[in-house]
Amino acid sequence: MDKFRMMFQFLQSNQESFMNGICGIMALASAQLYSAFEFSCPCIPEYNYSYGIGLLVVPPIWFFLLGFVLNNNVSMLAEEWKRPTGKRVKDPTVLRYMFVSITQRSLIAPMVWISVTLMDGKSFLCAFSVDLDIHQFGNSTLIEGMSEVEIITLLAKIPCKNIFDQPNVISREAASRYIKCISQAFGWFFLLLMTSAAFMIRAIRPCFTQAAFLKTKYWSHYIDIERKLFDETCKEHAKTFAKVCIQQYFESVSGEMRSLHKNRSSEDDSDNDDDDKKKGDKDKLLGIHAQDDMNKVLWNWHTCKPPLALRKEQPEGESREGLGPTGADSGPNGLANGHAHNDPKREWAVYYSKV
């Protein structure tokens, strides 16, 4: 149990490895699900195509949406896209990078399903058996005496071995192998196409826009880490707030008993320790001691996040440098009362050209 807990903590700390692991599990699940799936073609001309193409398209769409649901960055992307601008401008390139990253991971399981389905060929055979040229695999003398409806009905029964009742008219085995070979050819072509597209995205794009790629990758990581730290800070504040509220409740209820215990000298040290713990807990509250204040903080965080420009903190010995004789505080530009520092001025020579 400890090993699984350590593995989960490692994956949780490393978001990229965690999401890659989920994508791998989904890919294996899609292949295992197809192998356990019992394929049953209806063998009816009106439903063969819909069933075969639906089996090829609908499960990949479900896996694609499931990949978005299991990705934790989807809510972060939606929150960053819908939040008000406030004091921090939204960068469309970062949002685009995050969306492309989520989409790439979500496409792995659908690609595996489509590849396995095309390699197996059952759905392709069910969908396109009606379009087969019966003259290439059938007995021409028997086919000429059949109507168009009978031919289509016969072709629709090719995927169903149990109900195929006219082996003398058409060779079912040959027709099935022919369609499955075409399906496997499409499967290999699909794998080659997807692999080439992945190579183009992963390898060639950073070569042309390396600076922009690094910038968008950095700020996408920053948004993810900032959200995690904010959640951890809120969790720690809520825990401390609940602890202080419970302590104050019990102190108000047991006030008389506590006043009696304070007269004993043996418990003075414990009281001092309790006071130190209370001060430490109050420091963790960061000056927020009311529900309305916390709601205001959370609302301000959503509407106008702080700008991404850190303030420089001056040392105490340098905070008074450059001030006047009165020792007034610096102005908005870092100058005393709007006046410049007494630094030696430099002479500059400027030349102008009429060209």
Name a few traits of the molecule.
single chain; 355 residues; mainly alpha; 2 domains; 67% helix; 0% strand; disordered C terminus; ion channel; Calcium homeostasis modulator 1; membrane; monoatomic cation channel activity
Distance between the termini: 80 Å
Mean pLDDT: 76
Q: Could you tell me the radius of gyration in angstroms?
A: 36 Å
How much of the polypeptide forms β-strand, as a percent range?
under 5%
The portion of residues assigned to helices is: 55-70%
Q: How many structural domains in the coordinates?
A: 2
- Multimeric status of the protein: single chain
Written as H for each helix and E for each strand, in order along the chain, the element string is HHHHHHHHHHHHHHH
* Helix count, DSSP H or I runs of 4 or more residues: 15
Count of distinct strands:
0
Any low-confidence stretches, pLDDT <50, length ≥5?
Answer: 264-268, 319-355
Q: How does the helix and strand content classify structurally? A: mainly alpha
Largest sheet composition: none
Please state the overall shape, judged from the principal axes of the Cα atoms: elongated
Protein name: Calcium homeostasis modulator 1
Keywords: Ion channel, Ion transport, Membrane, Transmembrane, Transmembrane helix, Transport
Subcellular location: Membrane
Membrane topology: Multi-pass membrane protein
